[in-house]
UniProtKB/TrEMBL annotation:
It comes from Agathobacter rectalis. It comes from the Bacteria. GO terms for cellular component: membrane. Keywords: Membrane, Signal. Coiled coil: none annotated. Residues 280-401 form the OmpA-like domain. Residues 1-18 form the signal peptide. CDD domains: OmpA_C-like. This is OmpA family protein. The keyword Signal applies.
């Protein structure tokens, strides 16, 4: 408990202290200690989210200290159409700064209480939720400000967008975080966060009917947001602060459920074969980097290299004769046709034939072509770039796993 309290206090101090703690002429003693902070709260009081915790030290202390030190606070409400609902400087005339410390503290506490009450009464107005647009709006509310020692965005909510460019309904949690951010960068969707610290609270804390995220999925979500902030030139801080219960009397606009990936594929790593006796506990993905095909064909670009890549898998299967596998061919793009379905099947067949040639009993291998209609496909990636390349693959699964059974039953 003591460690948790210390960590929270450290985070709060990092947010509200000035980049330079040496006072300059005309500043009060409080300003010399903490500096003037500009803070934007990005809050998402929406459906499918646990209640926002406005009682956390991160919220309470940061607002109070920002107001006490004559800072600036803005508030963005995130839903399908994010909106800036408050933007105020809490500076006061110089003559009032000479009041007693107790008077200044009392006034700051009153203003903080009023602002928190105002934030607590905000709810979503529009269906869905677009956190990236909310972040962009927060940046705009702070970017033109001058004379502040620090700029901070506090993001309160699940961070699981269901609309906009960063739409997690597109199966983004199946992709590597860096690939997702590469795609955003290609589309020039990452805001300029130079000099800004982004602090998250309640990231991944979803509520019914949204399916709960696993710890691995929460970590992936955190890594995506951390990469977005860091690519934008900012600093990302994650806080594991508990949510409040949802007020069931409030009716929120609809937010779609994000279908969460199961058994997310791992990219094939030959080194893992020496250590991992459960290689097919998760699906294994042979991407274009592992096994390359001639464009629009089921012929290896370099047959010798492809066989060399597949050979350790064959050796593993021959050592573990109890395992039967399914090979699933997948393609880039979001539209399927007879051609893409046939091509994906033929590429899976090519890997099957190679495994058989290397000594694996053909009765242990079944191949299917799924095109883009597969559990791991990341939508919206098009045909170019790293995510599109990962969408073109042959995926190996243990034929007895639930995912393989479901695919084979369709």
């Amino acid at each position: 408990m003591q460690k948790r309290i210390t960590a929270l206090l450290t985070t709060i101090c990092l947010i509200i202290m000035a980049a330079s703690l040496t006072g300059c002429g005309g500043k009060t003693s409080a300003e010399e200690s903490y500096g003037r902070a500009a803070v934007c709260y990005v809050i998402a009081p929406t459906a499918n989210s646990q209640g926002l915790n406005f009682n956390s030290p991160l919220v309470q202390d940061t607002i109070y200290d920002t107001i006490l030190n004559y800072g600036y606070i803005s508030v963005v409400v995130v839903d399908g159409n994010p909106e800036l609902v408050a933007a105020d400087s809490y500076d006061i005339d110089a003559q009032y700064k000479n009041a007693s410390k107790e008077k200044l503290k009392t006034d700051a506490r009153s203003k903080a209480t009023n602002l928190i009450t105002y934030m607590e009464n905000q709810i979503a107005n529009d269906p869905q939720v677009d956190y990236l647009e909310g972040l962009r709006m927060a940046v705009r509310s702070l970017s033109s400000l001058e004379g502040y020692d620090s700029k901070t965005i506090i993001l309160m909510g699940t961070a699981l967008s269901t609309q906009g460019t960063l739409n997690f309904k597109n199966n983004l949690l199946s992709a590597e975080p860096d690939m997702v951010v590469d795609l955003l960068e290609e589309k020039e969707e990452i805001p300029n966060l130079d000099g800004i610290t982004v602090v998250s609270q309640q990231m991944g804390d979803v509520a019914s009917p949204q399916q709960k995220l696993s710890q691995a999925q929460k970590k992936c979500l955190q890594e995506i947001w951390a990469s977005i902030v860091e690519r934008g030139g900012g600093t990302f801080v994650y806080n594991d602060i508990m949510a409040n219960p949802v007020d069931t009397e409030i009716t929120y606009p609809e937010v779609d459920n994000v279908e969460l990936p199961t058994e997310t594929p791992i990219v094939f790593d030959e080194g893992a074969l020496d250590e991992d006796e459960s290689l097919l506990e998760n699906p294994v993905m042979l991407t274009e980097e592992q096994v390359s095909f001639v464009p629009d064909k089921a012929t290896y670009l370099d047959e010798k290299e492809a066989v060399s890549t597949i050979q350790p898998i064959a050796a593993y299967l021959m050592e573990n004769t109890q395992i039967s596998i399914m090979l699933a061919g997948t393609t880039a793009g979001d539209e399927d046709s007879d051609y893409t379905m046939t091509l994906s099947k033929k590429r899976a067949d090519a890997v099957r034939e190679t495994l058989i040639h290397l000594g694996v009993d053909e009765s242990r291998i079944v191949s299917v072509g799924l095109g883009s209609n597969n559990p791991w496909h990341v939508y919206g990636a098009g045909y170019e770039g790293s995510i599109a390349a990962s969408n073109r693959a042959v995926v190996l699964l243990d034929a007895s796993c639930d995912t393989a059974k479901e695919i084979l039953s369709e």
